[in-house]
Amino acid sequence: MMRDMGHGTTDPPTGAITLHRASYGVQGRPILQDITLSLTERRIGILGRNGSGKTTLLRLMAGLVAPTAGTVTVEGMDPAADRRGMLRALGILFQNPDHQIIFPTVIEELSFGLRQQGHSAAAAAAAAQAVLAAHGRAHWAPAPVASLSQGQRQLVCLLAVLAMRPRTILLDEPFSGLDLPMQIRLTRLLDGLPQRLMTITHDPRVVAGHDRVIWLDEGRLRADGPAAEVAAAYQAEMERLGALDADADIPG
Ligand SMILES: Nc1ncnc2c1ncn2[C@@H]1O[C@H](COP(=O)(O)OP(=O)(O)OP(=O)(O)O)[C@@H](O)[C@H]1O
Asked: For the whole model, what pTM was predicted?
């Protein structure tokens, strides 16, 4: 399997994320079916169309929902059961920052996860301030979150995740709603992170150069392999579908 040696300067993340015959359904409707994966790479892409089950896969790996069949483990833990262990194992950047942010100011938002990890209020505030400073945003600390742009709120969410120092970060469509300079800056920031990153996207350009790309299609694994191969096959299929009559590919 292709490796990106550019990430080789820091310690690799420990422990695999595994799914064994994992399925998830709602009221008898299958959303993910029979997914078996052992994920150990540092840069992993989850590629798929709208509604293919990408966010549901993320929710399973994060323990936000339990599989209706099969098993999911993160570094050997059951993510739905071991909430405390998961706080250091895995962080999530959701697609919409406004679904993630719950506090009025930036410093409160960044401190929250650290408090959950058991740090005192003073230690959490100090660590949050240090993360802001490390990313050139020390002056944001007292700012009302509502005064920031969507791109800036997205960065607040990412910095809140980084403050907790998880070993893996799940990113759900991290570039949606960002203009091009913001996308370029976020890409640079993400590229420099030592963590394992798992990036969910419908855009094959986002997963270029990733160590491994998984293509989800209608809740099933359609392909799994090096980025160039999987992205090329996905692109060809998207172009084939695009050439069909409008919506002929959408069930119902
Ligand atoms: N709790 C739920 N109840 C009912 N249907 C659900 C539930 N969760 C997901 N679904 C359905 O399962 C399918 C897959 O959803 P999911 O959000 O995982 O897809 P996705 O690939 O992330 O899509 P998008 O790119 O549009 O965000 C969708 O049709 C969605 O409506």
From this structure: 0.88
